[in-house]
Amino acid sequence: MANDRRAQLLSGNEACVRGALAAGVRFFAGYPITPSTEIAEGLAAALPKVGGTFIQMEDEIASMGAVIGASLAGVKAMTATSGPGFSLKQENIGFAAMAEVPCVIVDVQRYGPSTGLPTSPAQGDIMQARWGTHGDHPIIALMPASVRETFDLTVEAFNLAEELRTPVILLLDEIVGHMRERVELPPDESVHVVNRTKPVEDPETFQPYKPGPNLVPPMPAFGDGYHFHVTGLAHDESGFPTGRGQDADRLVRRLHAKIQNRKPPVARAEEWQLEDAEIVVVAAGSVARSARAAVREARVRGIKAGLLRPITAWPFPENEVREAARRAAAMIVPELNLGQIVREVERVSGGETKIVPLNRIDAELITPAEILERIQEVAAHVD
Amino acid sequence: MSIEELLERYTRRDKLPHIWCPGCGNGIIMGAVIRALDQAGVDQKKTVIVSGIGCSSRAPGYMKFDTLHTTHGRALAYATGVKLARPELKVVVLTGDGDCAAIGGNHLIHAARRNIDLTVVVFNNDIYGMTGGQYSPLTPQGSYATTAPYGTVDRNFDLCELVKAAGGTYVARGTTYHTRMLIDLISAGLGHKGFSFIEVVSQCPMYYGRKNKLASAVAMLEWQKEHAVPVKAAAKLTPEQLKGKFVIGELHREEAPEYTEVYAEVVARARGEEK
């Protein structure tokens, strides 16, 4: 099933499968959960064909554990889940962050809390993606808004995970996961694929957690003869547990720094019609689609509106939002939750502009008309 | 191989001495695992030792292999991922009674059901030692623990029966008293293709013993000697005669398709390499 240039009709979940294959995934462990199951189904069929392995584990926790084990054995590994399963995976996601195990976790967000409305859309896991596992861990979370972008960001999720030795979360929502769009996927050979750096040192003197120049330690696989130790306990460069606070401090600060210092920055956002915008809509994932339509319509009506779309939920695109806040008279933040992205916008903008939330939690999507109406209300007060 | 040679070849000597309390059985079990690995002739470079959380799970840190100290209860899940990604690796899981039978119980059942080629050694000291002496699913009913000041109410598991029922294809029980037998049981498990499971009845004089009138390691080892019945002898005894005793030796062995081998057939089928 090679990618070709012919246009296809794909759902976001299907594009995620295709992106994972293009990135070189060779292991998937998961547990059935709506609305992410199509990703497991797609990889159950595709992975054996490329010599990879699919397994449906006994629960969500085991799936995350198996993914980490497979990655340590040297293969690119992923899982896919939704809100309740994402909650169950959190402890092991923290292990992957602490032990620096590359892996990709797809969370197709659904309505919560708890079992909620399993087939209905929401963006309620943005803060869970950031803070779901305990302790001061760093995290990367990507939020595609289209089927094609789901393909691209799945590849990028693997690339970032491999380059930075870190878990990466692909934060879809039910709309992006299930909607179908016409897409043209790039041929496999033109997809930029990153593989983890392997050590070149002698196994006798090798320090498994001694960082390279980009603060990321080279990573051998189990069976390569390095006899290295991996633990979720705070450890020093030898990889063995340390009881010393200053070693733990150095480790956790490096985990953050390797992501924060990465060039080009991991954090990024799309800016659309922003140059002269007085009213900036900040929206991510499926909501950004309605926001774009609303901005377009506002421009037709003579309102200087623009769209700022975080592509990375985490790290949050602080510079882009701060800059936009400095120039805008107001920022509108529509979300399918009671206010999660808006907290970041408020934090980053530091009172430079008026922040207007727009929240919906009735299991329906936010329409362009609703956002346009809010833009018009705000514009009336600005003028 | 002399003990000096074994230590040099298979342990990370700079990580010793270990953290375990005086009289603890964990060192005996780790020693038996190392001797069994040597006896079974496994390739040290192609062997991964995986553990969960607890006293037992610190053992891999002292062993010169690729070693993985995971989250509490999840050693079998991580080990499953390692084995599936690289079936040529020998994967050994070291776990404790709390780690394996309580928080990790679901993974134990399903790993056994799959008959995936992992060798599991359970350090059963009847107690949560790392957290200071709380009762586990293997604590004998009526025993005392810091969380059972009036004696445990819970009935205790027979883990070997559980694993056998779940589909494990090699099941054995040993003790830290019968060390030669223990080495042979683990070695046989390592040689078995499929899910092999060895429960080791061990002693925690510090937290189980002190609460239960078994104040020394010697007293606890003597208790093992007096209460363990070899499987052949047990066959001649009535359930009434076996009451209060436990059976040691190879309890179950059968041949069944192994998971990664069956999955290799799936790969061949998906690639159209079969008719």
Q: What would you note in describing this structure?
A:
The complex is a heterodimer of chains A (383) and B (275). With 383 residues, chain A is α/β, with parallel strands linked by helices. In chain A, 38% of the residues lie in helices and 20% in strands. In chain A, strands 2, 3, 4, 5, 6, 7, 8 and 14 form an eight-stranded mixed beta sheet that branches. In chain A, strand 7 (140-142), helix 6 and strand 8 form a beta-alpha-beta unit. Chain A is globular and about 70 Å long. The relative contact order of chain A is 0.12. Chain B has 275 residues and is α/β, with parallel strands linked by helices. Chain B has a single domain, classed as Thiamin diphosphate (ThDP)-binding fold, Pyr/PP domains (Rossmann fold). Chain B is built from twelve helices and eight strands. In chain B, helix 2 (26-40) crosses helix 7, helix 4 (97-103) packs across helix 5 (105-114) and helix 5 (105-114) crosses helix 6. Chain B is globular, with a radius of gyration of 19 Å. Chain B starts with a helix and ends in a 5-residue tail after the last helix. The model of chain B has no long low-confidence stretch (mean pLDDT 97). At the A-B interface, helix 3, helix 4 and strand 10 of A face strand 2, helix 3, helix 5 and helix 12 of B. Strand 10 of chain A pairs parallel with strand 2 (66-69) of chain B, so a sheet runs across the interface.
